[in-house]
Write a structure and sequence with these properties.
Helices cover about 50% and strands about 5% of the residues. The chain has nine helices and two strands. The protein has a two-stranded parallel sheet with strand order 1-2. The longest helix is centred in the first third of the chain and has 16 residues.
Length: about 190
């Protein structure tokens, strides 16, 4: 993992195995101090060293900030090929585009609750008035900056704990992010009920 925010999102998601459609699992999260670029460059080597300790592995980082110059899909396929030398199908690369913050944009009620939103307008309405753009699925085009703006307006510190709190509340079944779909599909393949 590239950072504490991603770690806490994963902790929040994996704390809900039934919502993912998997059995409860034991796991370890390794955070690379080199952030997204460090995971991109060294992640497969770190998992090579860890192979004897685990049955499965996920190499996860944000595309934005990784320093990658190739397309996300090409980079993910290349890292999957490297991982398969040690792990076969028991390891998967998940590159989130643009970044893990996009997973935090589910139902607005959960975000309002976490930031204790006390304003009359909705969060997305306020962001729209602040010139943020949205995708057709209602997620901000710049999810991290939008999240930072929301926390700043609510005068609540953006922390890894707030990411975990959101990940524990969001609908995992309705999340439309392609990276999350790839993660869930592989987790179900490995650990499905």
């Amino acid at each position: 993992m590239p950072d504490k925010n991603t770690e806490y999102v994963v902790l929040g998601v994996l704390s809900r195995p039934q919502a993912l459609g998997i059995r409860a699992i034991d796991f370890k999260v390794i955070v690379d101090p080199g952030h997204d670029g460090g995971v991109r460059r060294r992640g497969a080597q770190i998992l090579h060293v860890e192979r004897h300790q685990f049955s499965h592995a996920v190499l996860m980082f944000d595309y934005e900030g990784s320093g990658a110059t190739e397309r996300r899909s090409d980079l993910e396929a290349g890292l999957d090929a490297t991982l398969s030398q040690d792990w076969g199908r028991d390891a998967k690369t998940i590159i989130i585009e643009p970044e893990v913050d996009v997973w935090m944009w589910g139902a607005e009620a959960h975000l309002k609750s976490v930031v204790r939103w006390k304003f009359p307008e909705g969060i997305r309405d306020w962001l729209g008035a602040e010139s943020f753009s949205f995708t057709s699925s209602g997620k901000p085009v710049r999810p991290k900056e939008a999240l930072e703006a929301v926390f700043r307006r609510a005068q609540v510190s953006r922390s890894s704990a707030s990411y975990q709190a959101l990940a524990k509340r969001l609908s995992l079944a309705r999340c439309e992010d392609p990276a999350f779909h790839r993660l869930r599909e592989r987790m179900v393949e490995w650990f499905g009920n």
